[in-house]
Amino acid sequence: MERQVTDSRGRRDEILGIAEDFVPSAGVERLAGLVRESSCAVALTGAGVSVPSGIPDFRTPETGLWANIDPMEVAHIDVFEQNPVRFWSYYRPRFHSLGDKRPNAAHEALAELERRGLLEGVITQNIDRLHRGAGSQNVVEVHGSIATSSCRSCAASYAIDEVNELFDGDGVAICSACDGPVKPDVVLFGEMLPEAAMKAAQELAARADLMICIGSSLIVHPVAGLPGITLDNGGRLAIVTKGPTPYDDHAELKLEGEVDAELGALVAALG
Ligand code: ZN
Fold first, then answer.
1. How many whole angstroms from 156 Cα to the centroid of ligand 1?
2. Could you tell me if residue 39 is inside a domain?
3. Residue 259 Cα, ligand 1 centroid: separation in angstroms?
4. Quick one: 250 and 127 in the same domain?
5. Does residue 257 have a pLDDT over 60?
6. Hey, is 141 helix, strand or coil?
7. Same domain, 8 and 46
8. pLDDT tens for each residue of 189-211
9. Are residues 151 and 265 in the same domain?
10. What is the signed CA dihedral for 96, 100, 101, 102, rounded to 10 degrees?
11. Distance from the CA of 148 to the center of ligand 1, in angstroms?
12. What pLDDT, in 10s, does the model give residues 24-42?
């Protein structure tokens, strides 16, 4: 029995990149204390959480064909509607490159905390599916996800692996049922955030007595307002992000190491 426990912990530590003789930093110990004291901890994650998976923040300059193109000018609802050839010439390769990516130790750590009952859920700005890929169950994807695409005419839904079959000779995804335009179920520039997801995120933020903000500069609204909701309801903030955020002065603590290392260490510190 004891042996089994040791073995399963060994496997977990391997996934999280934790060495056997690991000693957590004082900051990680404090964060572990906050998690232990909380009864409803929630994680809010941004692009930084997926950087260790090889997904650059979209603000990082791209190389190659799109080096000088601002994503805001292509991944825009107006381009999707008026120039779908241009839209898909940008988005189709992006779809493919995101589809190959795997969760990292930061995603694994948050899934592990949820399994242990220490984390209520994850609110994410990321569209890459990696929180679910790591096993997180309660995930609110406020910018949607590349997991599915939908026909704008008949609402037929296609899994990411099926979309590849839908491209016509111009490289535009067309519904196989009705020939309508198929759009990724992600929020494009110029689009409103999905109301149901935003409502779920706001409710979770209001209930949280601890919000751990990870890999986000917390400046893109309306997601940037969520930590404020937690504070207004008497909850506490912890920030695991490089660089300044507008909430730094309101947080109980801030960790500025690599997100995968810090969260892996958090799980280890929690024992
Ligand atoms: Zn259709």
1. 5
2. yes
3. 41
4. yes
5. yes
6. strand
7. yes
8. 999 888 999 999 999 999 999 99
9. no
10. 150
11. 14
12. 889 999 999 999 999 999 9
With respect to residue 199, please indicate whether it lies within any of the assigned structural domains.
yes
- Assess whether 227 and 201 both reside in one domain: yes
In tens, the pLDDT along 122-148 reads 999 999 999 999 999 999 999 999 999
The answer on 81 and 21 residing in a single domain is no
Element at 123 (helix H, strand E): strand 121-124
Alpha-carbon span 255 to 234, nearest angstrom: 22
- Find the CATH number of the domain harbouring 149: 3.30.1600.10
Nearest to 27 by CA among 257, 260, 230: 257
Sheet architecture: strand order including 253-255: 139-141, 121-124, 41-45, 210-214, 236-240, 253-255
Are 180 and 198 found together in one domain?
Answer: no
Quick check: 79 and 158 in contact, CB under 8 A?
A: no
Range of the domain at 76: 65-100+145-186
SS3 5: helix
Q: Is 229 among the domain residues?
A: yes
* Helix or strand holding residue 145 (H, E): strand 144-151
Q: How far is the CA of 58 from the centre of ligand 1 (A)?
A: 30
Which region among 53-62, 180-189, 197-206, 214-223 has the lowest average model confidence (pLDDT)?
53-62
Flag whether 60 is in a domain. no
Higher pLDDT residue, 164 or 64?
164
Residues with active-site annotation:
143
Q: How far apart are CA 240 and CA 64, in angstroms?
A: 32
Query: How far, in Å, from the CA of 155 to the mean position of ligand 1?
Result: 6
Q: Is 210 helix (H, G, I), strand (E, B) or coil?
A: strand
